[in-house]
Amino acid sequence: MRPLFDREGMHALDVVLRARPLLAFDFDGTLAPLVERPDDARVPVEVSRSLDRLARLRPVAVVTGRSVADVSGRLGFSPRFIVGNHGAEDPGRSAQLDASCLDGLRAHVAARKAELDAAGVQVEDKGFSLTLHHRVAHDQDRALACIRSLLAGLDPRLRPFGGKFVVNVVAAGAPDKGDAVASLVQRAGCGVAVFVGDDVNDEAVFVRALPNWLTVRVGSDDLDSRAGFFLSDHSEVAALLNVMLGVLRTV
Question: CATH number, domain at 86?
């Protein structure tokens, strides 16, 4: 990864913006700062105002691990597209994914609720996925061991994957964020995309991106990330949006 806010990065951003791209963003850790309690997450006012202005110039998408219903009221603006559950929940698709294969895991979670609570693992059921949060656990090793035990012998119709202090489970055949952004590029009638994300599940987009896309990771801590460029931290997202606005107003 290379820093976005250097000469090479700014040139690459200018080129892709002049190609009139889809602008796609993750939510937690990207548009909204990471917080201890997921229910407290909101897009800062300055960021939401810039996104609202961008949405008048280009198609904007939010592609998030949250459910569509959950994230919609946290944005402060109305993007053209919202895709939730790591790509599995897309209101724009003609047929929604069958997530009934999660029912067995739901029953398993309910049977072990006391154990999960004692380990500090919080379970979030988002309809198309289940998320096991362990950020607030006092003993991270115990929490992770509890999660591993819970998911041992997982139904092969399900797929687990990690994130920042979370383990997610979706249907094995569910679209991921890379699939979602590729679909949105076509539906928006764009030839290119800009995608900004910060977590493990955003790597699906970074890996899937075509050479003429621009991919940006918030944070430079993952040396193996496949993103093209990085921002130092969430505080630079507002500056990026302002640069985008400046260029797009001249296109």
Answer: 3.40.50.1000
